[in-house]
Amino acid sequence: MLVIIFRRLGQSVLVLFLVALISFLIFRYVGNPVDNLMGQEATLAQRAALEEALGLNDPFYKQYFSFVWNALNFDFGNSYRGALPVSDLIASRLPATIELALTSAIFALFFGVITGIYTAIRRGGYLANIILSTSLIGVSLPTFLIGVLLIWLFAVELKWLPSFGRGDVVQLGWWSTGFLTLSGIKSLILPSITLGLYQLTLIMRLTRSEMLEVMRQDYVRFAKALGLSSKQVNYKHALPNTLVPVVTIAGLQLGSIVAFAIVTETVFQWPGVGLLFINAVYFVDIPVMSAYLLLVGVLFVIINLFVDLLYLAIDPRLRDSNSSE
Amino acid sequence: MAENLLEVRNISVTFKTRYGILKALDNLSLNVKKGEILGLVGESGAGKSMTGAAILGLIDAPGQLSSGEIFYKDECISDAPEAVRGHEISMIFQDPLMSLNPLRKIGDQLVETILTHMNISKSEAIKKAKNGLKEVGIDPSRLNSYPHTFSGGMRQRVVIALALAPEPSLIIADEPTTALDVSVQAQILDLLKKLCKERGTSIILVTHDMGVIAETTDRVGVLYAGRLAEIGNTREVLTDPKHPYTRGLVESTPRIDSNSFKKSLFQIPGSMPKLDAMPSGCAFHPRCAFASDICTKKIPPILHKRAACWLLENGEL
């Protein structure tokens, strides 16, 4: 077990170095940092001095390692706009995105798995067919449209929920949370649904098809032939076997929920890192962009690592085949 | 008829498809006596496995039991087969690699099955599970092992232990040795036979292997295209087959006696009809050397409680 975990950790570190390399290339070579920092009036001497100060004349690998070293110390330089440290900017925006992503992931996973199981067990049933056809809408409508529709219905027409922002937040140390106030929770609902709807339908369809596949397996038929109740057959035999692939996909989807929160955050003016990134793109704020890229990379790697370990916990075959290598 | 443990009366299994209704089993009747081993033999698609699945109500949609009744211990079970699954009738499937839940320890699966059917404490169930493993020749200390750590033959032993755990009176064994090495096949069959004999448990043994039929079964039913072609005492059927199809099957089985080495094996010409292109009358007549006019027109019933062949009517065979 320990060997596998360490090997996975090693792979993750390798991937992170690669992500850091790409992030560094953007940072260093998209546009000229000196132009961005000094403006057009600077003299050649001033420019040369700044280049020297920023270490831009150092060899490539040296610059890369100092970039990685700085990143490890959460130092991504200053934003070109407002000259605030990028790490502070991200730290102030990150809680909003993480709370949004987590809420919509739980929403998607919970309802996705439940409706998936239901539509598989009640295959061809009336309600199951309705859920299935409705889910097509979730798959085919683009996120921003769903967001706008939800705003129109629940914020403009019914006036039940706010249409933008996070509502009131409570500061817990450096973390600002919207979970503790009523307006914060109300503000979370629409963006979470918007962000999670696609994942929900995806997880539902995956769960359903996996469950149908598993229910055709001999061990499920055997369990039935042994006289186990349909509850035992469905939830103790079929469901765990269904979850192995669902966990993988759900894990990857959690990564993309964070990464693609950009659209939802824009529609709902959600003050998260996605919105920060979009604004950074408008103003070619390279340090923010490269730090964001690195952040998403780190998130993906951590989630993947976690999914791998979860896999090992669920499936005994993987545990053994890996340790015997 | 009290000696009959199981009576299958005129069952048909149909599949509704886009191309119409297909009959996988057509008006099939048979019975199983207490303690006997009934073999079901036939080609792929003849309906052997379907018969087993039909008895336990395990036919996958869109298939369904469309007519007929199944009686177990003189009670009709075809409306609610769930009630007899496990503790009265249980089943063993063909592929032991696929029959056990890969994510759960075999002990958990055994204990779960025992607790479902018996009103005993968990520690007693564990004791019973260990006993069950010992009986099929598996070290009881492997209770906490996962299925993938066993070989195919050992897994089929675990499956047998599982099928016997709720103490059924009838086991439907659907090609229990087909997926195993030849060297293991005989062991598994002997084990199954021995354990069932000790308990007085009846077996329906589904197979396409005439050798297995000859060695293991008391009586045998020969299926062809979803219909029963011949049924009777195994020795009589194999030494003196009444249905031309059975005769073809017997003659196409290699045997070790003096002159048969020189001859090439007999083949039944043609192949079994597809369900959507069933011939009229007797389903076997296009391949039958003895077919006459009536064979193409009327489906023969089982005559003399033995074979579904018009030849028996005139006593020609």
Provide the descriptors you would attach to this structure in a database record:
heterodimer, A: mainly alpha, MetI-like fold, 2 domains, globular, B: 317 residues, Rossmann fold, six-stranded mixed beta sheet, 11 helices
Q: What is the structure about, briefly put?
A:
The complex is a heterodimer of chains A (325) and B (317). Chain A has 325 residues and is mostly helical. Chain A contains 14 helices and two strands, in the order αααααααββααααααα.
Describe the structure.
The complex is a heterodimer of chains A (325) and B (317). Chain A has 325 residues and is an all-alpha fold. Chain A has two domains: 2-63; 98-283, MetI-like fold, CATH 1.10.3720.10. Chain A is built from 14 helices and two strands, in the order αααααααββααααααα. Chain A has a two-stranded antiparallel sheet. Chain A is globular, with a radius of gyration of 24 Å. The model of chain A has no long low-confidence stretch (mean pLDDT 83). Chain B has 317 residues and is of the alpha/beta class. Chain B has a domain at 4-88 and 171-181 and 201-314: P-loop containing nucleotide triphosphate hydrolases (Rossmann fold). Chain B contains eleven helices and ten strands. Chain B has helices spanning 48-55, 96-99, 106-117, 122-135, 152-164, 182-199, 210-216, 234-239, 244-251, 293-297, 311-314, and strands at 4-17, 20-33, 37-41, 63-72, 75-76, 89-92, 170-174, 202-207, 219-224, 227-233. In chain B, the strands form two sheets. In chain B, strands 6-7-8-3-9-10 form a six-stranded mixed β-sheet, sandwiched between helices. Chain B has a four-stranded antiparallel β-sheet with strand order 2-1-4-5, with helices on one face. In chain B, a hairpin with a 2-residue loop joins strand 9 (219-224) and strand 10. In chain B, helix 4 crosses helix 5 and helix 5 packs parallel to helix 6. The longest helix of chain B has 18 residues, at 182-199.
